[in-house]
Amino acid sequence: MFVVPISGTPDRVSSGLQLPTVPAPCPELRLLAALGPQGSPDGVEQILDPLLASWGREPKLVTPVLAGLARERLPGLAERVLDCLARSGQVQVNVYHYTACIGAHERCSYWQQAVQLFCRMLLVNVAPNGVTCNSAMSACDNGRQWQMVLSLLKLMPALRLQPDQVSYGTAMQACTHNSDWQLALRLLSKISDMLVTPDSISCSTAISGCGKGGQWQLALKLLGQMPAARVLPDDITYNSAISACAHSGQWDLALTVLCRMLHSRKQPDQISYIAAISSCSAGEWQVSLSMLFSMPRIMVTPDHFCYGAAVNACSSGSQWNFALGLLTQMPEMRILADEVTGNVGIQSCKRSGQWKVALRILNWMPAVRAVPSQISYNSAISVSAQHGNWQMAISILHRMCRLPLAPNQISFNSAMSACEKGGQWELAQRLLGDMPPASLLPNQITYNSAISACQKCGQWQLAISLLSKMPLLRVTADEISHNAAMSACEKCGQWQVALNFVKAMLENRASPDQFSFNAAVSACEKGGEWQLALSLLFQMPESRATPDEISYNAAISACENKGSWQIALGLLSSMSRRRLVPSLITHSAAISACEKAGQWKLALGLLETMLEMSLEPDLIGYNSVISACEKAPSAEWQLALSILEKMPLRNHVSYSAAISACEKGAQWQMTLSLVKKMSESRVLPNQISFNAATLACFRNRWEFMFRLLGEMLDTSVEPDLFGCGALLTECEQRGLFGGELGLVDGLSVSPRLEFVRGSCAQTDNPDERVQSHASNKKN
User: What would the pLDDT profile of 118-162 be if each residue is shown by its tens digit?
Assistant: First the structure.
């Protein structure tokens, strides 16, 4: 939502202190002001000494002088005068003198000094009046000391003072500043109980408090009850109600209140329209433009805040042409565009990732004499970083360096974030080195971006080096710093280093979080340390880190790699007890663990469980189940084919596993059919596919073996020794010596086939020959 530096309520509730007009001429006031903001006690005494006698006879002559110092915002000098009067003993300091001094502190928001003077009055037995209390409360409100305001309000009855509208209004405004709308409403109800008639300022303050608390319904209810209480809503009241609706995005109600304001013959101002236009979100950009263009018809001139709110609405609705059109229209309408308007447009682009539009707005600003600020450039760098456009981010940073406007920490941090997202770790390190010469100290965000850039590019040594430098530069490393370094180690399989990180964090009482443990578990999984992965998983609850789906996925994958299928299934079942829903990755890892251990029934059961959960298995899951069927003792080729048919997407691994299952089940026709389907499905058969089909045709269908070999050569698949050995055996067994020579001449592996042919000649058993070729292949 577009935020403007003004609100629907007055900046402050007047304390009720009416400063008297200083008589002209007043030479003593000019002489006192010449002493400076504080003034020396001797200088003040020298000026006032000739006046003390007359002031002693008429103390009321002091009040205009103190009031004049209050107008000039010289509270310290006013208090010097008060001290001088008290020391002289010639002038009786009264409540009006103290009230004027407290009012001087109120104007400068010096709430501590105002409270001290108030307490001093009580100590010297000078009874404060209502104006004194109101002035002290207003000073505390200006200093955002809402509790002190309420304390002074509660003190008034004890001092035999009746709180008035100003007292309650100041207290309500203090509650509004603290976003305590409930207390503001209770104070409003007390006004009626104390027989004090609420005025429009009190109601406006209560409505504003409800708006800031998101209670737009109560705000509108208060607005509707005002006529019954014989309080007429004024411009401020309506503006507060419109702002309350705008804060909650109730654009239709904001527009309704604006129309009601017109019907009650109250003239809306720029504040009214800014709030109403700001209430329009992405879907109501047309309404924002309609309100903006209707302003001149009711004699309200749009300013840059109005245009900024409309630009924000158009940008949120992805109406970039309208947003840019409004920006270019401002000079034609003689509306001075400032950096705030441009910043609003750039920030809107940042939220939607429109870095090109943000750059156009940044280039537009100087053309309309709106000087871009650090915020403008930083926002443009940030939106480039958000989009991953590191080149543009660096270009804007260099542009800042050529201007008198120097980059700050935020500029460098945003540029480094862009380099991190773009995987430019070297450039991120260079920016980190450029900061000290520019008199900028890298902070936690800087180092985190640099470490994350190293993490994404696998530079784990550099990530650890940067992390170790942080304490030396008095930069505190947080969980993000450690986690990024650990993630770099995890990507490179440095499980020992990742474990050391977890150990160091525990020793330094910096509890590793969920991300820390996940990175360590994943590092152990990549390093094949499944026992350590399980140990870390079970250690997480003790360190107040709750295992999540990622934790279990990494642990199950570690068990999968080592064939510990029982533990993998145990972890899978324990997820439901922790109210974690196993994902596609979880089931695929468990199926793969069962497949590697030859547990084809369990693998098939997990696949059926996934389908029952409406969880579509991925390619890895389907392939693992087919491989498990192929590894079954009786070669469950029918199940393998059934699963293959169910798959929405198949690759060469899927077909190769199914062909191997059919080969083991002596289904040579089916193997040839699957090889044909692979070509029809534009899946290129590989060595495994052809070898399985070749072995299926061994003994009975030797002629198909030559056809398969021809297809291999046509598809540029290099036959291996295993497949060629089977063919050579057939040639020797059936006396096809000439065919054997032709086969040898057509293969790039022919020099090695002499060894295979020789081994085949040493035995007469074809099965033993094939086993010999298989042994040669392994060797």
Answer: 998 888 888 999 899 999 999 998 888 888 888 888 888 888 888
Q: Which residues of 270-297 are buried (b: 16+ CB within 10 A; e: fewer)?
A: bbbbbbbbbbbbeebbebbbebbeebee
Residue 688 within a domain: no
Q: Which two tokens stand for residue 545?
A: 């880190």
Q: Furthest-apart CA pair in the chain: how many Å?
A: 144
Domain membership flag for residue 56: yes
Q: Which residues contact 720 (CB under 8 A, 6 or more apart)?
A: 687, 691, 749, 777
Secondary structure string (H, E, C) spanning 278-297: HCCCHHHHHHHHHHHHHHHH
Residue (of 738, 742, 773) closest to 757 by Cα position: 773
CATH number of the domain enclosing 19: 1.25.40
Nearest one of 483, 492, 481, 468 to 514, comparing CA atoms: 483
Token couple for 300: 């309200």
Q: Which domain, by its residues, includes 119?
A: 1-176
| Token digits of residue 675 | 């090889």
Q: How far does CA 566 lie from the centroid of its chain?
A: 40
| CB neighbourhood size of 410 (10 A) | 17
Q: Residue 104 in contact with residue 66, Cβ under 8 Å? A: yes
438 pLDDT above the threshold of 80: yes
* Cα 410 from chain centre: 16
Tens-place pLDDT, residues 282-317: 568 888 888 888 888 888 888 878 887 887 787 777
Distance CA 44, CA 661 (A): 107
Sign of the CA dihedral 621, 626, 629, 631? Answer: negative
The structural domain count of the chain equals 1
Please tell me the distance from the alpha carbon of residue 548 to that of residue 516, in angstroms, as a whole number: 12
Question: How many Å apart are CA 501 and CA 508, to the nearest integer?
Answer: 10
Distance from C-alpha of 484 to C-alpha of 718, rounded to nearest angstrom: 44
Q: Please give the C-alpha separations between residue 675 and each of 26, 199, 662, 670, 718, in angstroms, as whole numbers.
A: 110, 90, 12, 9, 16
Question: Does residue 232 belong to any structural domain of this protein?
Answer: no
Whole-angstrom distance, CA of residue 405 vs CA of residue 121: 51
In a domain, 2, yes or no: yes
